[in-house]
Specification:
GO terms for molecular function: azobenzene reductase (NADP+) activity; FMN binding. The protein is of the alpha/beta class and 187 residues long. It contains five helices and five strands. It has a single domain, classed as Rossmann fold (3-Layer(aba) Sandwich), CATH 3.40.50.360.
């Protein structure tokens, strides 16, 4: 079984990012185990947690669980909105937590895909570019073209949270197929 961890950059239960993630999770092959890892309860990153000389800050169990989940994954799919022209704080926090300790970075060489969205026409362009920049530091193989920027994203979903048109569904399926190829190539 190929394991994909999905990180949703919004903490809202009914967020568009979560709805998009739930839609694309169904687009993976049957032999893929695809699950959302909830990042909302991760404490804000503090290097003292990883400093062996610092005894006042024991490493949170949630950090260890998150890092082990990422390391045991065959790939990571990020689905994120754009907040103030960048990625949401919860997602940046998760990136930082996975980046330590320096000798055992969870992200290192892990295939990644990114789907960004916004209520405006730009589709989360700035968030995606910021996230790509952060992930490039870890030598993560990233999907190339097409990049997925879903503009006016709430209009792409019906009342039940399902994608409401074939064009968007087919576009996302093509992207998931490309991401699966990247994961298979980098196992």
């Amino acid at each position: 079984m190929t394991k994909i961890t999905v990180l949703v950059g919004s903490l809202r239960k009914a967020s568009v990012a979560r709805k998009m993630a739930l839609n694309v999770m169904k687009m993976f092959p049957e032999n893929y185990d695809v699950a959302i890892y909830e990042i909302g309860d991760l404490p804000l990153y503090n290097f003292d947690y990883d400093d062996a000389n610092e005894t006042d800050f024991p490493l949170p169990e949630s950090y260890t669980a998150f890092r082990e989940t990422i390391k045991s994954s065959d790939g990571v799919l990020f689905v994120t909105p754009e907040n103030n022209r960048t990625i949401p704080a919860c997602l940046k926090n998760a990136v930082d937590i996975g980046s330590k300790p320096n000798a055992d970075v969870a992200w290192k060489n892990k295939p990644a895909g990114i789907i960004s969205h916004s209520v405006g026409k730009m589709g989360g362009y700035s968030a995606q570019k910021n996230l790509r920049l952060a992930l490039s530091y870890f030598d993560m193989p990233l999907t190339g073209q097409p990049e997925i920027f879903l503009g006016n994203s709430p209009t792409l979903l019906d009342e039940a949270g399902n994608i409401n048109n074939d064009k968007t569904r087919d576009f996302l399926q093509g992207y998931i197929n490309q991401f699966v190829e990247l994961v298979e190539k980098n196992k």
